[in-house]
Amino acid sequence: MYQKIFNSKKITIDEALDIVKPNDEIISAMASAEPKMFFKHLHERSNRLKNVNVINCLPMEAYPYYMEEIYKDSFSMEGWFYSGAIRKAHLHGNISYIPNHLHLAGVKRLALKRPDVFVGTASPMDKHGYLSLSLSATYEPLMIENAKTVIIEVNPNMPRTFGDTTIHISQIDYVVDVDYQVPEIIINEPNELDMKIGRIIAELVEDGSTLQLGIGGIPNAVTKALV
C-alpha cells in the first residue's frame, strides 16, 4: 500500500524544478542533508524565474544559481553560515548573511514567512511508509510541517537515523529518486593567518577543558596548535 502511495508521488528532477514559481521562497535541508540534484540544476530554470529566494543554513557546494552573476536577477541566497563560496559570491548583490541562534532558526524564520517550497533528502522508505531525514533534523521537520510544498530527494546512500528525523510518506508531496554520495565538506589545511590566530587561542585553553569547535580554517588551526 505505501509503495503505491510513494510511486504516485514520484517525479523527475525536471518536474521538481518546474514546481518552483517566480517570487517563491525555497528552504533547503541543512549541510549533508542538502538536495544536491535540485540545486545542481536550479539555474537551468533562470529563463522563467525571477526573485526566487533560497535559504540554506550551510550550502555544501558552490552551485551556479548563486555563484554565477548572470543568475542574480533570478535567484538570491540567504546563508545562515557564511561559507567561503557565499563570501566569494557576495559582490553579486544577491547574497545575504542571516545571523541566528541555530536552535531557534526555524521558529524565527516561520515567524517572518511561511516557505513556499521545502527541499531535502531522505533515506529510502521502509515497509511502514516511513523515511528518514537522515543527517539533519535541525529545522527540517518544522519546515516540512509548514511549507506549502515538500519535495524530497530519496537517496540510498543516506544513512537511516531515528527519532525526529523520521517522517511518513503522507507528509511529503513529491519524491525524486537520486543516487549520489553524501555531500561532505573538504577539510583544508589552515593558512598562515589561521595558524597565527589558532596559536593565540590555543594558549588560552586550560588542561581539562572541553572544546566545541566550528567549521573552517581557524577551528582547524586551534586543534593543530594544541597538539
Please characterize this protein's 3D structure.
- The chain is α/β, with parallel strands linked by helices and 227 residues long.
- The protein has helices at 2-8, 13-18, 36-41, 64-67, 84-89, 105-112, 140-146, 192-202, 217-226, and strands at residues 25-28, 52-56, 75-79, 95-97, 117-122, 130-132, 149-154, 166-168, 174-177.
- A seven-stranded parallel beta sheet has the order 4-3-2-1-5-7-9.
Order of helices and strands: HHEHEHEHEHEEHEEEHH
Structural class: alpha/beta
Strand order of the largest sheet: 4-3-2-1-5-7-9
Identify the overall geometry: globular
Mean pLDDT across residues: 93
Distance between the termini: 56 Å
Kindly estimate the percentage of residues that lie in beta strands according to DSSP: 15-25%
Main pleated-sheet profile: 7 strands, parallel
The number of E-state strands comes to 9
Can you give the helix content as a percent range? 25-40%
Q: What are its keywords?
A:
two-stranded antiparallel ribbon, seven-stranded parallel β-sheet, alpha/beta, 9 helices, 227 residues, 29% helix
Short description:
This protein is of the alpha/beta class and 227 residues long.
Describe the secondary-structure layout:
Layout lengths: L1 H7 L4 H6 L6 E4 L7 H6 L10 E5 L7 H4 L7 E5 L4 H6 L5 E3 L7 H8 L4 E6 L7 E3 L7 H7 L2 E6 L11 E3 L5 E4 L14 H11 L14 H10 L1
Parallel strand pairs: 1-2, 1-5, 2-3, 3-4, 5-7, 7-9
Antiparallel strand pairs: 6-8
